[in-house]
Design a protein that fits this description.
heterodimer, A: alpha+beta, 5-stranded mixed sheet, B: about 140 residues, mainly alpha, 6 helices
């Protein structure tokens, strides 16, 4: 009897520790030790993988580079407008992220098309209009295939043009990037529960002191 | 007199038995089509049209417009077999996109249409294989 009680309490404690909200998100991606000189002394620090600079065009025809995201937290994904399988589900869920943060100018959503041939800028604009997306909080990005596939690697993604039917295969992940351009989370974009977690994590991230001060 | 009464009661029981067994046959057919249709819907339609048939903004129409479905009842099987393209008005909104043809067999079309036309607030009864075959023969 006493044992049972003990196990019960132990279980409760563990459960509790699982559900308690972490106040800092992990930093993902490769880390490398870097040594630098500070005040004449050698210091070793950890450098996390960051998203390299890029250049794409959004649905309004504006050029977007990494600079346009300075001081902003953002979420990236990969899609194409004629995708019959997971994209409608992903963007049905992404719409919740958009609605939650669309009035925050320090937040963006970047959806890269992996079918630049069909998804030209006017096609992306039409898609945005039909999705009911306006303003600058959600950018649909067009770029050449090499650039898009290249940046996808930085986001830990695999986007490939494969399969005999000429269809595109791509991961349905949403990737959360902080103001230092580091990866702070990846979420299965087709799962509404994961997307709820993304929304909660964005709020946690925004509250981190490091993020609050970054420009 | 007595015999007539017995025969009468007997006939009455027979008729009710036949009628009620017919009804339950129809009910059984409906349940079979509906249950099969639910899993076909999840696999082939839900991504686009949504778990509750809600559609997606102005990109993909909802399946909740009973009047649209009733008006196009005889065309629905053709929509699935041959695809649907061009401007349509569903739930008072315009849609102008494309649904690609599916490779569902007629029996699967019957099942999924039974599910769709009896879910999401729709109530149109069973769409069975004979009906679908008849409709498919008349596709434009």
């Amino acid at each position: 009897m006493r044992n049972l009680l003990f196990i019960g309490i132990a279980a409760l404690v563990t459960l509790n520790s699982c559900t308690s909200k972490p106040d800092k998100l992990p930093v993902l991606g490769n880390k490398q030790p870097v040594t630098k000189m500070v005040d004449g002394k050698q210091v070793t620090d950890t450098a996390y993988a960051t998203i390299p600079d890029f250049k794409f065009v959004n649905q309004y025809g504006d050029t977007i580079t990494a600079k346009n995201l300075n001081g902003k937290i953002y979420v990236a994904d990969f899609f194409f407008t004629t995708c019959p399988s997971i994209c409608p589900v992903m963007h049905r869920n992404m719409l919740n992220v958009y609605k939650e943060f669309k009035d925050d100018d320090n937040f963006r959503i970047l959806s890269h098309t992996i079918d630049p041939k069909y998804d030209t800028v006017p096609v992306l604009k039409r898609y945005a209009d039909k999705m009911g997306i306006s303003g600058n909080s959600w950018w649909l990005l067009h770029g050449n295939k090499g650039d898009t596939y290249g940046i996808s690697k930085s986001y830990l993604q695999s986007v490939q043009e494969k399969n005999p039917a000429g269809q595109f295969i791509h991961d349905g992940f949403f990737i959360l990037i902080d103001k230092q351009k580091r990866i702070r989370g990846t979420y299965e974009g087709t799962d509404p529960k994961e997307v709820d977690k993304l929304i909660a994590d964005i709020k946690t991230l925004k509250a981190e002191p490091e993020q609050a001060v970054a420009k | 007199m007595k015999i007539k009464l017995i025969i009468g009661i007997f006939l009455f029981i027979m008729i009710t038995a036949i009628v009620s067994s017919c009804q339950s046959d129809a009910q059984v057919e409906f349940s079979r089509y509906y249950a099969g249709g639910a899993s076909i819907y999840q696999e082939h339609c839900q991504n686009c049209h949504g778990e509750k048939g809600e559609g997606l903004q102005s990109l993909i129409p909802p399946l909740t417009d009973s009047i649209y479905l009733k008006n196009n009842k005889k065309l629905l099987a053709c929509f699935l077999q041959n695809g649907l393209k061009g401007k349509i008005t569903v739930n008072k909104s315009d849609f102008d996109d494309e649904m690609k043809p599916t490779d569902l067999a007629p029996i699967e079309i019957a099942k999924v249409l039974t599910y769709v036309t009896n879910s999401f607030g729709n109530k149109m009864g069973t769409v069975n294989l004979q009906m679908v075959e008849g409709d498919l023969a008349k596709c434009r």
